[in-house]
Design goal:
The protein is of the alpha+beta class. The protein is built from 9 helices and 16 strands. The strands form 4 sheets. It has a 6-stranded mixed beta sheet, with helices on one face. It binds ligand DP6.
């Protein structure tokens, strides 16, 4: 039996991935940039066990729903193919944060799974190949492999589509204050959303302009220029949601509470606080600010009746292996 346990943080996209060139391999229509979220993580233990007749996957200590188990098995198939083995695996995953509410649990989940399964299978993959492997499970998972502020180049092919760090977590003490307005599971998955992105007449314009937004975002991070970052982050989020609500069928992830939190963020900015918002495929609002004002921003968000909880995350490190949990591998 070879077992390994790995951890990965979720990430918040500052420039969003929405729409695929290749939906099976998750080759994205545009590049994206994100920040890993420290404090939140998925912990995944993978063990290849000769006695098993099929893969078994538990999520938060319960047997996972069939669609999630299939996605996990597909990734395990890739690992088995690379390692030249046929053994089935037992995979146990836990999130220390709410699952399926727009805090990309599939990102941390598939990043942790890729690292744990690759290690348990005896594969020695570098960061690029781990990122490529994680991408085949869930696109945004490739950004949870490297550290800190991360760019995923579309690349256009399996070989060239991977993520890399553009700045270490310590580079900029940004804080993502996640205002939870709902922790209900979302009705439409990101995968379904990606598949209809091209039905929106806005998608082409969003994709064509993406290199410009990526440049502005990358430079804003390098220069720690919050004003430039805020403008491009809000624009990019709004462009993605414009595509979502004009797709066929239309996708509206916002709730009335989402919009009212966005309005509060705009008011905070008018009153002089350096804040901005971004929203993924869910109703919760990620409010970005610098650590000096994070206490005040989080305090104001907590006061809002529509906000049930605020999670505060600093930039997070890369996915990592829990060395003490290795069994059956002759590794250090
Ligand atoms: C809105 O990576 O969850 O969070 O590849 O189908 O698993 P799949 O999609 P996923 O899509 C993420 C969409 C997003 C934007 C982003 O994280 O870039």
């Amino acid at each position: 039996m070879t077992t390994a346990t790995a951890y990965a943080h979720p990430n918040i996209a500052l420039i969003k991935y929405w729409g695929d060139l290749d939906p099976t391999l998750h080759i994205p229509a545009n590049g994206s940039i994100s920040m890993n979220l420290a404090g939140m993580f998925t912990r995944t233990c993978a063990s290849f066990e000769p006695g098993l007749e099929e893969d078994r996957f538990t999520l938060n200590d319960k047997p996972a729903p069939i669609p999630s188990s299939r996605r996990v098995s597909k990734l395990l198939d890739r690992v088995r193919q690379m390692a030249g083995i046929r053994t089935h695996a037992l995979v146990e995953s836990q999130n220390n944060f709410p699952t399926g509410v727009g805090i990309a649990s599939s990102a941390s989940g598939f990043a942790a799974l890729s690292l744990a399964a690759a290690y348990a299978a005896g594969l020695e993959l570098d960061e690029k190949d781990l990122s490529r492997l994680a991408r085949t499970g869930s696109g945004s998972a490739c950004r949870s492999i490297p550290a800190g502020f991360v760019e995923w180049q579309s690349g256009g092919s399996d070989e060239e589509s991977y993520a890399f760090s553009i700045a270490a977590p310590e580079h900029w003490d940004l804080v993502d204050c996640i205002a939870l307005v709902s922790i209900a599971e979302k009705q439409v998955s990101s995968s379904e959303g990606h598949s209809v992105a091209n039905t929106s007449i806005f998608q082409e314009a969003r994709i064509t302009d993406a290199p410009r937004r990526l440049d502005i975002c990358r430079t804003a991070i390098q220069k720690r220029d919050f004003k430039a970052l805020a403008e491009v982050v809000e624009l990019d989020s709004n462009l993605m949601h414009a595509v979502m609500i004009t797709s066929d069928p239309p996708l509206l992830y916002w709730k009335p509470e989402t919009v009212s939190v966005v309005q509060e963020v705009i008011s905070m900015r008018k009153s002089g606080l350096a804040v901005c918002y971004t929203i993924d495929a869910g109703p919760n609002v990620h409010v970005l600010c610098s650590s000096e004002v994070a206490g005040a921003v989080s305090g104001m968000l907590k006061e809002l009746p529509q906000v049930s909880k605020v999670l505060e995350c600093n930039p997070g490190g890369p996915a990592w292996i829990e060395k003490s949990a290795l069994h059956g591998n002759n590794r250090d």
